[in-house]
Write a structure and sequence with these properties.
With about 100 residues, this protein is an all-alpha fold. The protein has 4 helices and no strands.
Length: about 100
């Protein structure tokens, strides 16, 4: 009777390992497919050739947008100054909270 119990336990452990291995293999294949799909999707946004083609095809539109919305040096200086003052104020607030 003891031998039967030991054999059954060993058999169940082996079957659990086989099932676990099969499950992990299936998960591995699905993750590989997902990774491949994601890489292909990212190529649209990271491939230099696609960016170059986009700007070559839409060059006129981009230049028109720049002409319609020019940002002068004075405006940029003003924006930078405001952002600097805000950062400085936030740093002072953080220092006061830490003290």
């Amino acid at each position: 009777m003891k031998l039967y119990k030991h054999i059954f336990i060993i058999y169940s452990i082996v079957m659990d390992k086989d099932a676990k291995i099969k499950e992990l293999e299936e998960e591995n294949t699905t993750l590989q497919l997902e990774l491949q799909f994601t890489k292909e999707h990212l190529k649209k946004y990271t491939a230099p050739s696609s960016r170059k083609l986009y700007y070559e095809n839409n060059k006129e539109q981009i230049l028109e947008k720049k002409k319609l919305n020019p940002s002068s040096q004075e405006k940029r200086k003003e924006y930078n100054k405001i952002s600097y003052l805000r950062r400085k104020e936030m740093d002072e607030i953080k220092k006061n909270e830490n003290v």
